[in-house]
């Protein structure tokens, strides 16, 4: 292809530019590509030219080219709207007179080349970076709160766990469609996120002893970039995710089969397998000869114990959920409606920086509370009824999960109080058991004993208590918590707990309306769920700032309920802090919870997390509730 004399092209472009200057004297023209002004006439060139010329144009970074094309289309549309018919005709005439098609092609190429070389490094990788989102991330982090070196060490540790000469294939979560063109909110697969830090769909990560991490990245097509924006491609994989190798996903069928052939053992997550690699003949052959095994046993092993930076995010996620649920509790007296409370808790979580809820909030009023994972959230809450809210949010990949049950009207009936107290005492007893060496199963068995005994005393259960108990509570006392709500499902509940593991403690009672027992208890559901971090010497309750004593809840509802729509102020969106007490022997984890019209100091409900004690109420806190 003939390239026209660059000097000539430059003159012509100046010519077009000056023509525009005549049309609009205010237009500032310069060829500095950093200056957006000069791009004003490029769209015209583009809109008059055919797309063919772009396709034939010099090799440029596809992501950049696509982005430029998108921007130019938009700009050209905008600009054409601003121009009169006369102005456009004048330009067209000018174009006809001075430029042949070949010349136009040259101009376009030149323009692209200039911009390609002068734009410099791509800073948008389709997800936040420390450069694009300094408010969210520090330098050296791949995702907020997690540094590049931590991602590298996670991969190293996984390779150490795998047998020699292994190959692990981890696919990104697929985009699920709600309708033809509308996707459900995308959520990355936890293993893929844990190992790569990449938050977008369409990729396949391959980890091996031979080459380290190799990522097959989706290729940004111009159309997708225009409609969905930039995505991370091969460059991002190398630069940002620090892969040893990276290829476009279209090359997977050429490269991956050889990698599979060279390895002696193949691992993948059976539940999230995608046809991108399972359709490969080499993969199927390997599966046929029994070379393929499940990877999640290994990834869950790694994810089970949280690192200090993960724990920081877990604590923050829990603090957000606590503050959000407290605000929702205060809202519930004025707005006793499941749907409104669900909306309120999500709003409060997201205003505090959570990306999404960890699961659909459970907001069950009255008998709906006895449905364990109730999520219709569409009913009014009757005066005097309890409401059960099980909520959690997701902060940069880390989930929270807590439940409180209360009476929005501001007072518990004696029957409600009787059952509530049993659940609360069980909650506290079980938290006391949380320490290294204990297992979820042991704590669960203990909770069953406590509840069976209590329910018999109250008179709900009579003979055959154990069998009937399971009708009233078929759930486990808790589960592991982390990047997934039911985290690390491959790890048995019999496994002795270790420092750094986070579990939930969630005793409950769910008496259906149809239950064959005393009428006064029918249609009642109560659950009190806390998040517990196992520490070296005991445990720390991450959700300790959320009140659970009846007298505290009643005091809050009767004295601090919102009577009108409450708007968040800056100080209310706060993060937990840890400080050392004056004697330097206790670390205080303070989760500020600001209540409307309260002075800042008095409004801080804080938990003093001592070893072996479950978030005792501090004197400060007690004073607030009196
Ligand atoms: Mn839970």
UniProtKB/TrEMBL annotation:
<keyword id="KW-0464">Manganese</keyword>
<dbReference type="GO" id="GO:0030145">
    <property type="term" value="F:manganese ion binding"/>
</dbReference>
<comment type="similarity">
    <text>Belongs to the peptidase M24B family.</text>
</comment>
<dbReference type="InterPro" id="IPR052433">
    <property type="entry name" value="X-Pro_dipept-like"/>
</dbReference>
<keyword id="KW-0378">Hydrolase</keyword>
<dbReference type="Pfam" id="PF00557">
    <property type="entry name" value="Peptidase_M24"/>
</dbReference>
<dbReference type="GO" id="GO:0006508">
    <property type="term" value="P:proteolysis"/>
</dbReference>
<dbReference type="InterPro" id="IPR029149">
    <property type="entry name" value="Creatin/AminoP/Spt16_N"/>
</dbReference>
<keyword id="KW-0479">Metal-binding</keyword>
<dbReference type="InterPro" id="IPR000994">
    <property type="entry name" value="Pept_M24"/>
</dbReference>
<dbReference type="InterPro" id="IPR036005">
    <property type="entry name" value="Creatinase/aminopeptidase-like"/>
</dbReference>
<feature type="domain" description="Aminopeptidase P N-terminal">
    <location>
        <begin position="146"/>
        <end position="277"/>
    </location>
</feature>
<protein>
    <recommendedName>
        <fullName>Aminopeptidase P N-terminal domain-containing protein</fullName>
    </recommendedName>
</protein>
<dbReference type="GO" id="GO:0005739">
    <property type="term" value="C:mitochondrion"/>
</dbReference>
<dbReference type="InterPro" id="IPR007865">
    <property type="entry name" value="Aminopep_P_N"/>
</dbReference>
<dbReference type="Pfam" id="PF05195">
    <property type="entry name" value="AMP_N"/>
</dbReference>
<dbReference type="GO" id="GO:0070006">
    <property type="term" value="F:metalloaminopeptidase activity"/>
</dbReference>
């Amino acid at each position: 292809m003939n390239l026209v004399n660059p000097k000539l092209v430059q003159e012509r472009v100046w010519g077009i530019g000056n023509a525009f200057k005549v049309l609009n004297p205010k237009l500032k023209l310069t060829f500095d590509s950093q200056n957006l002004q000069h791009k004003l006439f490029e769209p015209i060139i583009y809109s008059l030219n055919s797309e063919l010329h772009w396709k034939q144009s010099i090799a440029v970074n596809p992501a950049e080219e696509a982005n430029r094309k998108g921007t130019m289309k938009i700009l050209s549309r905008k600009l054409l709207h601003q121009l009169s018919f006369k102005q456009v005709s004048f330009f067209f005439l000018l174009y006809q007179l001075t430029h042949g098609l070949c010349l136009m092609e040259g101009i376009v190429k030149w323009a692209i080349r200039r911009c390609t070389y002068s734009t410099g490094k791509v800073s948008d990788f389709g997800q936040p970076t420390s450069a694009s989102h300094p408010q969210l991330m520090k330098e050296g982090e791949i995702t907020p709160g997690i540094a590049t070196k931590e991602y590298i060490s996670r991969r190293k540790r996984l390779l150490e766990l795998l047998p020699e000469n292994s190959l692990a294939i981890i696919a990104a979560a697929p985009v699920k469609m709600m309708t033809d063109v509308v996707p459900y909110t995308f959520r990355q697969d936890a293993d893929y996120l844990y190992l790569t830090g990449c938050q977008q769909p369409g990729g396949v990560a391959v980890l091996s002893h031979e080459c380290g991490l190799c990522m097959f990245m989706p290729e940004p097509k111009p159309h997708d970039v225009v409609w969905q924006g930039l995505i991370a491609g091969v460059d991002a994989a190398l630069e940002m995710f620090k892969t040893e190798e990276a290829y476009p996903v279209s090359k997977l069928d050429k490269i991956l089969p050889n990698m599979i052939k060279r390895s002696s053992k193949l691992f993948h997550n059976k539940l999230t397998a995608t046809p991108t690699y399972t359709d490969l003949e080499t993969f199927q052959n390997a599966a046929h000869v029994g070379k393929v095994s499940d990877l999640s046993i290994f990834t869950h092993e790694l994810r089970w114990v949280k690192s200090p930076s993960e724990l920081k995010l877990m604590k923050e996620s829990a603090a957000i959920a606590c503050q959000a649920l407290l605000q929702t509790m205060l809202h519930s007296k004025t707005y006793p409606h499941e749907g409104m409370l669900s909306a309120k808790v999500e709003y409060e979580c997201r205003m505090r920086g959570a990306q999404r809820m960890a699961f659909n909030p459970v907001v069950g009023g009255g008998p709906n509370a006895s449905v364990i994972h109730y999520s219709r959230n569409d009913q009014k809450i009757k005066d005097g009824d309890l409401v059960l809210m099980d909520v959690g949010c997701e902060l940069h990949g880390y989930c929270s999960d807590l439940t409180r049950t209360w009476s929005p009207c501001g007072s518990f009936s004696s029957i409600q109080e009787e059952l509530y107290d049993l659940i609360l005492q069980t909650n506290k007893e079980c938290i006391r058991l949380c320490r290294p060496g204990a297992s979820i199963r042991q704590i669960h068995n203990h909770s069953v004993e406590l509840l069976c005994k209590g329910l018999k005393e109250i008179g709900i259960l009579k003979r055959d208590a154990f069998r009937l108990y399971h009708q009233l509570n078929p759930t486990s006392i808790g589960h592991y918590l982390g990047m997934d709500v039911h985290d690390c499902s491959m790890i048995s509940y019999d496994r002795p707990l270790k420092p750094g593991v986070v579990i939930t403690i969630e005793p409950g009672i769910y008496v259906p309306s149809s239950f064959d027992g005393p009428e006064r208890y029918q249609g009642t559901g109560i659950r009190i769920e806390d998040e517990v971090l196992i520490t070296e010497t005991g445990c720390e309750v991450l959700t300790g700032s959320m009140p659970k004593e009846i007298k505290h809840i009643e005091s809050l509802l009767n004295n601090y309920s919102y009577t009108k729509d409450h708007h968040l102020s800056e100080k209310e969106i706060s993060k937990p802090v840890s400080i050392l007490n004056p004697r330097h022997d206790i670390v205080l984890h303070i989760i500020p919870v600001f209540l409307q019209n309260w002075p800042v100091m008095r409004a801080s409900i804080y938990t003093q997390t001592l070893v072996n004690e479950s978030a005792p109420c501090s004197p400060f806190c007690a004073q607030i509730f009196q």
